[in-house]
Specification:
CATH architecture: Alpha-Beta Barrel
Number of strands: 10
Order of helices and strands: HHEHEHHEEHEHEEEHEHEHHH
Structural class: alpha/beta
CATH topology: TIM Barrel
Strand order of the largest sheet: 1-2-3-4-5-6-9-10
Largest sheet: 8 strands, parallel, barrel
Number of helices: 12
Radius of gyration: 19 Å
CATH class: Alpha Beta
Distance between the termini: 65 Å
CATH superfamily: Aldolase class I
Number of domains: 1
């Protein structure tokens, strides 16, 4: 299979000259969605709809709209929808259907390397990945960020290292995601976020991505400064079943669950003291 970057370059080349129609996105605010979740006592979670990925076996065959609706019912503040077809089984059609069915912001997650790809489908938020830009055959990050905003998109700029965060901020990113997964090795280390997050100023919305499997992981990312979490496999493929709504709710109520566990422990300790 071709590399993700090579496949992205080929799709970009196919789009160039194929259509002159330019997207004019009517976008819901991602940051306001996070604020609403916080006000409701929920951890702001972007739940991800993806049929498959290079790090998973098999393919999820559920209706993506039903998955998305279950995630929203479980309290997701926003959704991420894969549109990359070759490695993740995604499609722009699935994003269109999902966005029409839900009332939360939808992030288009793809490997956008040329401006022509911006016009593939309307979304509320667009992903740009630092490591795949400013290379041969790709556009400049700052130029793409500007072009996306001109179309009405909000933009999540993804980084993995401190130097990539610096590039994102230098290009004018207002929403930065720190991916705990090294896209070169496909390895996950949650300490990545805890280390790199310190490079992001408080006025920038900060999202922790990948590897968040448990409520403890969610709490750790929040304590390290994450304004929101982007979660995929832990919701769709969580151990113990595939109840997407329940898996989403488990993560978005992570703080209250932890409080409840502490209270339960305190009650147990008090009962033990009484009996001793």
């Amino acid at each position: 299979m071709r590399s993700i970057l090579d496949a992205a370059r080929e799709r970009a080349a196919a789009r160039e000259g194929a259509s002159d129609e330019r997207i004019d996105a009517d976008a819901q605010s991602l940051t306001e969605a996070f604020e609403r979740a916080e006000a409701d006592g929920r951890v702001p979670v972007i739940a991800e709809v993806k049929p498959t990925s290079p790090t998973t076996d098999g393919e999820r065959t559920d209706d993506p709209v039903e998955l998305a609706e279950s995630m929203v019912a479980g309290g997701a503040a926003a959704l991420s929808v894969l549109t990359e077809p070759e490695h993740f089984g995604g499609s722009t059609d699935a994003l269109e259907r999902i966005r029409a069915a839900v009332d939360v912001p939808v992030l288009r997650k793809d490997f956008v390397v040329r401006e022509a790809q911006l016009d593939a489908v309307e979304a509320d938020v667009l992903l740009l990945i630092v490591r795949f830009l400013d290379e041969e055959g790709t556009d400049d990050l700052a130029d793409l960020l500007t072009a996306a905003r001109e179309r009405g998109f909000q933009v999540l700029v993804e980084a993995h290292t401190a130097s990539e965060v610096e590039r994102a901020l230098g290009a004018g990113a207002e929403i930065v995601g720190v991916n705990n997964r090294d896209l070169a090795k496909l390895e996950v280390d949650l300490e990545t976020f805890e280390t790199v997050a310190t490079e992001v100023p408080e006025n920038v919305t900060l999202i922790a991505e990948s590897g968040i499997a448990t409520t403890n992981d969610a709490l750790a990312m929040r304590e390290a400064g994450a304004d929101a979490l982007l979660v995929g496999s832990a919701i769709v493929d969580a151990a113990g079943g595939s109840d997407v709504e329940a898996n989403t709710r488990r993560l978005v109520t992570a703080e209250s669950d932890a409080t409840a566990e502490t209270a339960a422990d305190a009650d147990t300790d008090a009962e033990a003291d009484t009996q001793s």
